[in-house]
Amino acid sequence: xxxxxxxxxxxxxxxxxxxxxxxxxxxxxxxxxxxxxxxxxxxxxxxxxxxxxxxxxxxxxxxxxxxxxxxxxxxxxxxxxxxxxxxxxxxxxxxxxxxxxxxxxxxxxxxxxxxxxxxxxxxxxxxxxxxxxxxxxxxxxxxxxxxxxxxxxxxxxxxxxxxxxxxxxxxxxxxxxxxxxxxxxxxxxxxxxxxxxxxxxxxxxxxxxxxxxxxxxxxxxxxxxxxxxxxxxxxxxxxxxxxxxxxxxxxxxxxxxxxxxxxxxxxxxxxxxxxxxxxxxxxxxxxxxxxxxxxxxxxxxxxxxxxxxxxxxxxxxxxxxxxxxxxxxxxxxxxxxxxxxxxxxxxxxxxxxxxxxxxxxxxxxxxxxxxxxxxxxxxxxxxxxxxxxxxxxxxxxxxxxxxxxxxxxxxxxxxxxxxxxxxxxxxxxxxxxxxxxxxxxxxxxxxxxxxxxxxxxxxxxxxxxxxxxxxxxxxxxxxxxxxxxxxxxxxxxxxxxxxxxxxxxxxxxxxxxxxxxxxxxxxxxxxxxxxxxxxxxxxxxxxxxxxxxxxxxxxxxxxxxxxxxxxxxxxxxxxxxxxxxxxxxxxxxxxxxxxxxxxxxxxxxxxxxxxxxxxxxxxxxxxxxxxxxxxxxxxxxxxxxxxxxxxxx
Amino acid sequence: xxxxxxxxxxxxxxxxxxxxxxxxxxxxxxxxxxxxxxxxxxxxxxxxxxxxxxxxxxxxxxxxxxxxxxxxxxxxxxxxxxxxxxxxxxxxxxxxxxxxxxxxxxxxxxxxxxxxxxxxxxxxxxxxxxxxxxxxxxxxxxxxxxxxxxxxxxxxxxxxxxxxxxxxxxxxxxxxxxxxxxxxxxxxxxxxxxxxxxxxxxxxxxxxxxxxxxxxxxxxxxxxxxxxxxxxxxxxxxxxxxxxxxxxxxxxxxxxxxxxxxxxxxxxxxxxxxxxxxxxxxxxxxxxxxxxxxxxxxxxxxxxxxxxxxxxxxxxxxxxxxxxxxxxxxxxxxxxxxxxxxxxxxxxxxxxxxxxxxxxxxxxxxxxxxxxxxxxxxxxxxxxxxxxxxxxxxxxxxxxxxxxxxxxxxxxxxxxxxxxxxxxxxxxxxxxxxxxxxxxxxxxxxxxxxxxxxxxxxxxxxxxxxxxxxxxxxxxxxxxxxxxxxxxxxxxxxxxxxxxxxx
Lengths: 649, 503
Hints:
The complex is a heterodimer. Helix content of chain A is 71%, strand content 3%. By secondary structure, chain A is mostly helical. Chain A is globular. Chain A starts with a helix and ends with a helix.
């Protein structure tokens, strides 16, 4: 086994072992005391060690991997359909794995401080740390499995285990009544998408005779089948990566502890869908219809998320909707045939969104609320958090030279190219993604500015509390994440980095030879001015409004559209009316039908038999004279018959 | 292993529990009797495990002639006048089920050492469990149609007695319904067996497998009768309505045996007898079977979504899960049959665990009403965690045992292709989403939220006996999920032999 293969195999295995061991620890201790402290300490050790080792392994993989490699062994044979156990490694895998493991480590460390009873807490709360840390480890393992998997079924395992872990972690907060419902919604909505994902995998596997990704990619699929399979896979992608109309779970997933939001929004779960499309892009690139559908979904998601983020009052909800919107950029880049740009933005987004959530967690930790209407003026009391948040929001809005500027530029550049010159998808898809992306820049700048102003500037709206910067265990993960959030974009200037993100060469753009260095991902030209102007417009509007009324909400700019944004177009209610309620009714109907009709027929026939038997029995219970008469009549009949038949003979 | 040892083990698998039942019934001392019964069940498992070695286990299908090649067999004259033979044998299709049966019976007997459900003596319960085991194992091992039928029937009365003796408040009605309904299925089975035997002139399953002995007409008739009989047992919608009552009213160990292995007699019979003896009939009826299987998946999960009683919900979930197994059989592909076999085993393990857990919850809280159960994780986190694990396994989470059967039943339907089967695949996959919906609803109701008054008085502990009983099932769920080869490795050759010329 070569070194990269060994590293790639260990990548998901190490956090898996840490997670399984962690699950064996006592989940809860009724009394605060040594038992709970000891379990907690063991859980912390397991969780952080697992994440740190994964990070080391991922970095080592990035360092040792020269060319794409693959290792496979048969796992099980389902009658001519082979399921393999194997890894498929390339530089993209290593880069994404580094991002995943880094965010996971930050989250594990951050959680130590976030889920702790402070000296001022009035009530003793059992945070149930051991299962929490173990589930984060499992979550990391599942995402890393998706990243390295060389087989679609293996990938599906990671994919679904991730859904389970998100469910468990969103429901972790036991004092929040909304948490179980949100968790269930997250699992179910993604599971509905996974119906398509499973069917897509089934189609591809049956067509290729194997579920190994290399076999599936190299097989010459029939066009109709490939179109159907790609569209079905997109359903699963839409579920995991929160694309319209399956995005509804993501904002509700805020019910989970803040570090979990960072994990879900930055490195795992939502990234998985985009990653899988990039991984299977040689297939998607052949199906313009699928790319067109993806482009439309991306444009809608991008605008919907950005628009909904404007009027939210909950800090985390703003960030959640911003994730939805940024995911629109990612899938938009895929739709216009630029998986490398999508992966670039995925990496920078992982950095700045993890930073934003962890910084928001510091605010919530200090201020005791996530509602911006009760925050404000935190700049003086929480300077470290303020500056970190500023970097994160700048990167999110695409302020040069922060990372988001470059990666978003590469997405917009790819969309513009596709709009002008065509690509694997029709030109109108390029136009749609490009225009939506430009409008999105202005909206993003608007809500990012609003968030900053409402939280950190102006006068404190609840002056009773004394917020302060968080303790070191919360501060350091935030501070370290500012580095990639600020600087990762510069990597886009490097041709090596671009090649890392396109290890198999571009499937779409014409290039004379793969030996030539790849184009860098960043294109600084006059076209950059347009998004910059839009950024200034969005930020300026929000700022101007705030200047006029520092206590007010810049979202009033939306006027009558404000409730539309605050309720995100009432899509939640629509989903409830169109999907949830009919299914609940159908279930009740099915139960009644099953009990009354199907079982009724059975018990009914039983009752009829009973009644018939009873009737016959009653008829047989005769008094002596009638019985005697019956016997006599019978004897006569038999005698008569004997005489008649005997007479014949 | 030499042939003789294999034959001895084969007979021991039936003789040990039978002798155990007699001894248990004869012993006066209750606890000693339960202990003897548990030892007998353990010995049975020990006899069943090594059957996999030796014989023809590794032999791949190089020899094309017989469609059924047992690893070990015992063939003795039984009623010479009627040409009936005592013919037992084991192969890769039956062996996993034999082991599952022996394991679940052992766990149930062991569980009664710790706790006897109220209603009767533990001694009698253990004896009845062992008799049921003899019947189920005999069904899986019989290679003579008449013998198969006899063993199939042996199960019925002791199971009836278990439900009536140790069941819930509505046990009499449920047990009566169970007995009469499945007896109705048995009549069809008897007629089907007689049709086959008279048309082919032999009752030897080895000779009959592959359909060589029967022409098309009798095959269609035989398959219809046999499939109906097995559909009652499996159960296939709409012949399932005995199941929810019986499973709900039975004591915990009874529910575990019922759901864990008794239902498998139906699916096993369908594969071994109905498809094996009348393949042309199977092909003819496959679309109907497929449609009914998918209807079972959808109706079963929808009904679960509206259930309000814990045990009844788990009972109904069997209808949906067995729908996936039957869908796999109905595709008549190598993929589908493999999915059915592993689905069978996985359902036995997972639903066995679910019934154990449901029993533990009902014993502690004295209610199964979902409206009165809430917040289990507040007071009993371990129990809640185990329930969560079992529910997640039951919804077919990849990486756990339940996944393979359900996912590959869908894959097999896709593989068959054509508008009908593709539609069935899509609907079955949607049924998978509904399955997730009702199990998550169950978890939300039972484990999350504030502790209800019934749950609030629970202690956090789980007894050692309970852990010992559940741990093998938890581990097997993981093991079969991670290494499906444990079940499918032995089934490759027999499945390929059963379906010559098919993928």
